[in-house]
Amino acid sequence: MGILNATPDSFSDGGKFRTPSDAIAQAERMIANGADMIDIGGESTRPGAEPVSLQEELDRVLPVVEALKDCGVALSIDTYKAETMRQALQAGVDCVNDIWALRQEGAVEVIIESDQRNPNKQCGIIFMHMQRDPQTMQFDPEYQDVIAEVKAFLQERAALLESQGVAKNRIAIDPGFGFGKSLKHNLKMLTEFDQFSQLGYSVLAGMSRKSMLGKLTGRDTNDRVAPSVAAAILAADRGAQIIRVHDVQETVDSLKLWEAIQE
User: Fold this and answer.
1) Is 36 contained in some domain?
2) Where do the Pterin-binding domain residues begin and end (predicted)?
3) Span 148-159, pLDDT tens digits
């Protein structure tokens, strides 16, 4: 999954792909480098990020979705706003990726409505664990048992969707590295990543260029390609089926070696 931030303030590449033409060109580069899915986002969710209005988010993402809907790979909309989900699904995205795990008003209803409207094209759903919210999530996060608590949350949200008729194979879960977790919590989750795979859903690993890697290496955001790739391989080796990254070429090439070893 290639990350496409049509934002001015995302933590790693904010502002680089703010215009639709720049965002589309970046998507095309990621596809050429082997991305299977493009995750389009119009609002930064880095720690301390300020929310943007619905209209601002729509203005950022919908032109990109429209331009890429026939690009040959799956499109995901990275949003927690129900109306953005609705309009992006109508515009042709294949998947909703929600850091709030469909807990915002109307989000679950949008999925159900979309299923009823398009029974032959039911979207994928990725939802994440986050402690508190992006403004406060990194203020001293605490857990009694981070693995057990994250697993329980993800299982509960998946069960809710399944109770609404969403098939299990449409659901992917994301433990949420860096979203209300300390470095210790993040390393524990990576070490025991296979625990999330055991829940029976596809699991997404999203560690690309994150501050956990900066704390370990001392590298600035854009100098974290090597640890990002290493984290991706470690997660894949523990059962991750979706790897969300900024650096598609380097990650794809490394995964090819890892896959050859598995075979």
Assistant:
1) yes
2) 1-256
3) 999 999 999 999
